[in-house]
Amino acid sequence: MPKNLVVVGVQWGDEGKGKVVDALAEHFDIVARYQGGANAGHTVVVGENKFVLQLLPSGVLRPQKVAVIGNGVVVDPEALLNEVEAIGKLGIEVGDRLLVSDRAHLILPYHRAHEAAAEAARGAGKIGTTAKGIGPAYEDKAGRRGLRTCDLREPEIFRRKCAGVLAEKNRLASAVFGGGTLDEGDLVDRYYEIARRIVPYLTNVSAYLNHAIDGGKCVLFEGAQGTLLDMDHGTFPFVTSSSAAAGGAATGTGVGPTRLGTVMGVSKAYTTRVGSGPFPTEAAGPDADKIRERGSEFGAVTGRPRRCGWFDVVAARYSARLNGLSALAITKLDILDHLAEIPVGVEYEIDGQPIAEFPAEIEVLERVRVRYQVVPGWQRSTFGLHEWAELPQKARDYLHFLADQVGTEIAMVSTGPGRDQTIWLGNSSVVISP
Ligand code: IMP
Fold first, then answer.
1. Which of 106, 131, 251, 422 is most buried, judging by how many CB atoms fall within 10 Å of its CB?
2. Dist. CA 212 → ligand 1 center (Å)
3. Which tens digits make up the pLDDT trace of 165-223?
4. Residue 115: other Cβ atoms inside 10 A
């Protein structure tokens, strides 16, 4: 069993990473998030309870595990406190099991206001963001004007830095976006109170994790969103503003690449995307509607209907290479149970010529013609199965086909939202038998 593991989305997010991380967390001491913010929506079902975690690592649901929010995450302190309170009401106390990096950047109210105005100004070209202030917070980080969680420690420092940035934001809001401005006194007063509750969670996450690894502890690094939404490698500009691919785990926690261990990619047995941007294997009409209905494909954070389509081998191969995947977890296999035939996108063509690589330009990606290979469906329920041998032969053939096409072995198959609705494949290098 590997010591440390990065779990990353292979597609455009919503692959079911929350369930996979929750199922794996049992075998790790610490679960650490490394990027994104409260834009993630990890739905985890434990017994009768359904949890949607946006900022907290999924591992927090297991009582003995330490949950870490790395420096690469943008932290909305109000969202964090609300989430801690919400799971507390369901009987899960985070207490001192939650650690937040003192170097993580803050999402403040002006980020959300800026995002709403910027999206409205883009009109038809809008990105379709989750409206959580993620992009503007990362802009301020890269622009070297962002406030960090450590700034909450000293009220006077917070007030001074906040006043400087807010003056600029207010000028921008009225001059460029024609929007309302925020009052410095109100904002600072409100955050003094919030700071008091956040500061006890702050720590140097890099030091904590590295010492823990030195002491023999195992860390699971939990990616949010997906590789195709990665700021560098995704379908830019229709991406999120962080490093969602596995490499982000190093910069986003301060743990060096040599210590990250193996990488497991999570992919649905088909593909979905929420928000705008190219989606070559998108299905239309009743096929898409049926998958959306059977898979409850509506955003966990925004409630938006997800766009649905077929498994995309070209994109998955691209993602496997970017992440250096050791293995795949295939989720929501059961959603395809009704189909007599399942198309799988195996090649892209431009002007009748196959193209070898996932293109950089979205204009090209929007024009690709996908060549499909149609694979027989199994038309039997696989819902809740937890043994490989119980799967219909054609479902096994489908999974073998995906593994062969992508060139990555499959370590786990998910057949339902519950922890035990999972098939572990014993011959994998990263498999962890229950
Ligand atoms: P942002 O992350 O809110 O800036 O949104 C940028 C893009 O990423 C939009 O297309 C969102 O729909 C998408 N996105 C952000 N978070 C998630 C997620 O957790 N799952 C799926 N899509 C996401």
1. 106
2. 32
3. 999 999 988 888 777 889 999 999 999 999 999 999 999 999 999 999 999 999 999 99
4. 22
Q: Where exactly are the structural domains of the chain?
A: 5-102+202-263, 105-198, 266-424
Distances in Å between the Cα of 349 and the Cα atoms of 130, 280, 316, 365, 371 are 32, 11, 16, 10, 7
- For residue 9, the ligand 1 atom closest to its alpha carbon is 20
CATH number of the structural domain 5-102+202-263: 3.40.440.10
Catalytic residues: 14, 42
CB 336 within 8 A of CB 374: no
Do the Cβ atoms of 56 and 87 come closer than 8 Å? yes
What are the distances in angstroms from CA 188 to CA 137, 138, 344?
18, 21, 53
Read off the pLDDT of residues 12-50 as tens digits, 9 standing for 90 and up.
Answer: 999 999 899 988 999 999 999 999 999 888 877 877 888
Diameter over CA atoms, the chain: 66
426 CA distance to ligand 1 middle (Å): 34
- Is residue 121 within 8 Å of residue 127, measured between CB atoms? no
Give the pairing type, strands 327-331 and 262-268. parallel
Residue closest by Cα to atom 10 of ligand 1: 275
Task: Name the residue with the closest Cα to ligand 1, atom 20.
Answer: 13
Nearest atom in ligand 1 to 274's CA: 12
Whether pLDDT at 1 is above 70: no
Domain 266-424 architecture: Alpha-Beta Complex (3.90)
Q: Check: CATH 1.10.300.10 for 105-198? A: yes
Return the ligand 1 atom nearest residue 37 CA: 2
Provide the β-strand partners of residue 265.
Answer: 8, 328
CA of 129 to the centre of ligand 1 (A): 6
In this structure, are residues 377 and 339 in contact, taking their beta carbons and an 8 Å threshold?
Answer: yes
Is 266-424 the same fold as 5-102+202-263? no
